[in-house]
Design a protein that fits this description.
Blueprint: E1 2-4, E2 9-11, H1 39-50, E3 54-61, H2 66-73, E4 81-89, H3 94-97, E5 100-107, E6 111-118, H4 128-131, E7 136-143, E8 146-158, H5 159-166, H6 178-187, E9 198-210, E10 221-227, E11 233-241, H7 246-259, H8 271-285, H9 300-306
Parallel strand pairs: 3-7
Antiparallel strand pairs: 1-2, 3-11, 4-5, 4-9, 5-6, 6-8, 7-8, 9-10, 10-11
Length: 309
């Protein structure tokens, strides 16, 4: 399974194409520019897109452009939905290094969802039986300077169940369906069970959907801001489309963003990788190896809630 960025080609296990360094609010500088894809990389990206079920076009916005971006696209910030993202991995990110992501997410109103994600993947190698599941999808994320194809098995739970897991009152595996657990077992490092994972997070985020005027852009866009306890944050603007629409929608989305003065070539920050590395580093700073949450983590619930602000 192979993914490429503008500067590097790697064979699984591999890292997503985008950079994941948090942007500190205390600093302001001209954004580094992402290197454009080569012709061969563009060809491979569209080959992956042909085998995917959906495409997400995304752009990380430089810190100094956050306020201008919100104003320019006419987004109403009070309509943003608060969420919490909980990642689970080993303290040294063994899952992430193997291309596996385990996440639960609390949503305003008491709902929650879960995902087991594998990346990078080659769509041609995916089991046809998996493709037939409504909970399974193959998606290509495309951003300036990079792209990655991922396979995700999604599930639903309640927000209370997520809190019960972080408090050590319910095993982590109980959040996930039988099919999700089988997908995890098939791709996680040998011998690494869910019971051995630690909590990395939560990351508090705000998600807002916006429908531009039809003459400007004819589909919804999503703006997310991920906020970290040290004050750093990442803003991402994205839209989704079907594989057959990717080329035209990418051109239209680029024109829409450029028309609103949004920097298109800035180096990109991957939300998942940023969160994993941030909270892994915090464990190391505190001299904590991290306790497997499924084996009791007294006080974790209050900590999880406190970290949300």
């Amino acid at each position: 399974m192979v993914t490429k960025t503008a500067t590097k080609t790697t064979t699984r296990p591999a890292k997503p194409a985008a950079s994941a360094t948090p942007v500190k609010t205390a600093k302001s500088a001209q954004p580094a520019l992402a290197k454009p894809l080569t012709g061969d990389q563009v060809i491979e990206m569209f080959t992956l897109i042909k085998g995917a079920t959906s495409v997400e076009l995304k752009l990380s916005v430089p810190l100094e452009s956050h306020h201008a971006t919100v104003r320019s696209i006419g987004l109403d910030p009070v309509e943003a939905q608060p969420r919490q993202a909980f990642f689970f991995d080993t303290p040294d990110l063994a899952l992430n290094k193997a291309g596996v992501v385990v996440r639960a997410r609390r949503i305003q109103g008491g709902g929650a969802d879960t995902v087991i994600k594998l990346r990078p993947v080659d769509p041609s190698t995916i089991d046809p039986d998996l493709r037939r599941s409504a909970a399974f999808k193959i998606e290509v994320d495309a951003m300036p300077g990079g792209y990655v194809c991922s396979a995700s098995f999604k599930g639903v739970c309640t927000g209370q169940e997520v809190l019960d897991v972080t408090a050590g009152e319910m095993p982590l595996r109980k959040l996930f369906s039988k099919e999700q657990r089988a997908f995890y077992d098939a791709h996680a490092p040998a011998g690494l069970t869910m019971d051995q994972l630690v909590l990395l997070g939560p990351t508090f985020l705000l998600k807002a959907k916006h429908q531009p005027k039809a003459k400007d852009f004819d589909r919804p866009i999503v703006v997310e801001v991920w906020l970290y306890p040290d004050g750093s944050h990442v803003m991402e603007v994205s839209t989704k489309c079907l594989p057959k629409e990717a080329f035209q929608v990418a051109a239209d989305f680029k024109a829409y963003l450029a028309g609103h003065g949004i920097v298109l070539g800035a180096d990109q920050s991957a939300k998942t990788k940023t969160s994993l590395e941030f909270f892994s580093a915090r464990l190391k700073e505190k001299g904590q190896g991290g306790r497997a949450i499924s084996k009791g983590a007294g006080g974790t619930r209050s900590s999880a809630l406190a970290n949300a602000t």
